[in-house]
Design the sequence.
């Protein structure tokens, strides 16, 4: 299967799962589900959950066990975009070629839809952890957990519950004040002034990098990856996270607004500190080349199985939207 | 010890714990912690975490084990107030006698501070669950969990991890789209029109009731309460949650703005549906009397130990702010 077909197949699996996780409801608060679903189904690339599934595939893990966490990450990503687009924040009217959430549902509902998506992400992960307990207690179905299912015992073998809690912990930290939200704060406070290259990298490591890394690492944790494997994947995730942001900044200057489904040039207009404004366009492009090469190299030891993840690094490098 | 001293002692314990959970940091995103702490320490009554601790005390539980969940609930409550006060929502300038979060830190930061508090609530709860595993695996300290610490085994005895996950699940559901946020959505969509008594009660069961109930029930779950005990406490929680909201609506008409630290009359000005607008002031007051009596009666079987919780019901009934 070629890269695009494989990518699309996984993205489609994610779409179906998300559709179930945030279903429409005919209750008095039903409109919140519409608002949540609007942004969830607005044609995102599903890069983060696809990364999770690709890591799982490479490590020989079980995709359905990864899915709740992969979808939770996509929901966290989506809520951050809804809030980021608000008039009080970036004040964007379009996202992925469609009117932004607050343009359709109003500002108050957009705030609540974002809140609800973040909350739902954790509901899904907690339910997943709990399901593992309840299933085993009441139904005795999960026979394979019976032997390894002792939690908190003296063993180097982590139980499934421990792994899931560790994955949830990685995601929670990545999306919080010391991760994604922290990056947004630095971004906010950097507007209109030129920041140091170090602070720029710090900002993006938090703002975009943390959640991309969480997508890779939560999957690695859930699949029981070794310390060595986790270390390689961590480097890979950090590199593609940085590459993603450099490319974003380049596209904001050079991209085609029609193809991207949103306006370009907004960074310059908002006097944002970007890789382009700090390092210049040419230097940013050569940084992107270097970092992409480093990402690919970092997972070379996984051999042929790492092919898809390498292709993702190239996809991030070459993307037009 | 009299009621007020006992209440204040627990509230003070909560204050100290919160101070640790959301500490100031000297990092580039440091201002987010200032914004989070501003609203967290703005003089809230700490009703929800005090309820958790009181239930724990009544059931003979261990307060430090309840504390992370009690604080998480207070953080969720605080984030909902920050977002609720935003210009796009209720547009309130004062809360508890102090300028609202967005008035001090700006709208963008207030959105992010709210997001970060919700996220932090889950970080704390997940860390707490995980700590139980990691502690036992690495340090062998938690000897008392060694016997009961099997997760997912065939037993009616729930393990500590399962109880914590169940508590987190109850909190997550209460704060989400089918709980608190759902209630806010109904509230938003009810502005300017008279709603049915049924919808009014549904709205408040979600908006205020769900999180108050979660404070009581998560503590009961963590303390390993019996089904019978949980059932009584559930009734109690539902009654005081409703009483709290009826009193809120009455105070918005009759309260003293100086004492309350915020403007009154805003419900009528915003054409909100309230108990007073739907049932009238006198009927609302007699409903408040009845429901308070029912709350007290519902925990009568706990005997003398339930005294503090009964006093809380009276406190909610009599409060002036």
Sequence:
């Amino acid at each position: 299967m070629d890269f695009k077909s494989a990518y699309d197949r996984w993205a489609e699996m994610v779409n179906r799962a998300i559709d179930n996780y945030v279903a429409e409801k005919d209750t008095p608060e039903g409109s919140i589900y519409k608002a949540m679903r609007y942004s969830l189904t607005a044609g995102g690339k599903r890069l983060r959950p696809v990364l999770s599934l690709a890591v799982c595939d490479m490590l020989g893990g079980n995709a359905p066990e990864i899915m709740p966490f992969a979808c939770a990450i996509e929901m966290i990503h989506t809520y951050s975009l809804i809030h980021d687009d608000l008039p009080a924040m970036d004040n964007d009217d379009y996202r992925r070629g469609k009117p932004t959430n607050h343009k359709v549902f109003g500002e108050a509902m957009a705030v609540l839809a974002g809140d609800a998506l973040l909350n739902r992400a954790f509901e899904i992960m907690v339910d997943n952890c709990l399901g593992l307990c309840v299933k085993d207690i009441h139904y005795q179905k999960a026979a394979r957990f019976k032997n390894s299912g002792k939690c908190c015992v003296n063993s180097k073998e982590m139980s499934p519950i421990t792994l899931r809690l560790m994955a949830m912990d990685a995601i929670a930290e990545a999306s919080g004040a010391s991760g994604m939200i922290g990056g947004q704060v630095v971004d906010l406070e950097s507007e209109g002034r030129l920041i140091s290259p170090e602070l720029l990298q710090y900002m993006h490591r938090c703002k975009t990098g943390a959640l991309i890394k969480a997508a890779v690492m939560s999957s690695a944790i859930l699949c029981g990856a070794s310390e060595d494997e986790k270390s390689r994947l961590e480097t890979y995730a950090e590199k593609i996270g940085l590459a993603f942001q450099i490319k974003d900044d380049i596209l904001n200057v050079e991209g085609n607004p029609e193809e991207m489904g949103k306006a370009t040039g907004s960074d310059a207009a908002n006097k944002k500190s970007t890789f382009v404004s700090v390092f210049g366009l040419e230097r940013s492009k050569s940084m992107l080349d270097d970092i992409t090469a480093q990402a690919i190299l970092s997972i070379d030891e996984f051999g042929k199985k790492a092919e898809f993840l390498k292709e993702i690094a190239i996809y991030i490098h070459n993307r037009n939207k």
About this structure: The first strand of chain B starts at residue 94 and ends at 95. The CA atoms of residues 148 and 155 of chain B lie 10 Å apart. The domain at 3-226 of chain B is CATH 1.10.600.10 (Farnesyl Diphosphate Synthase).
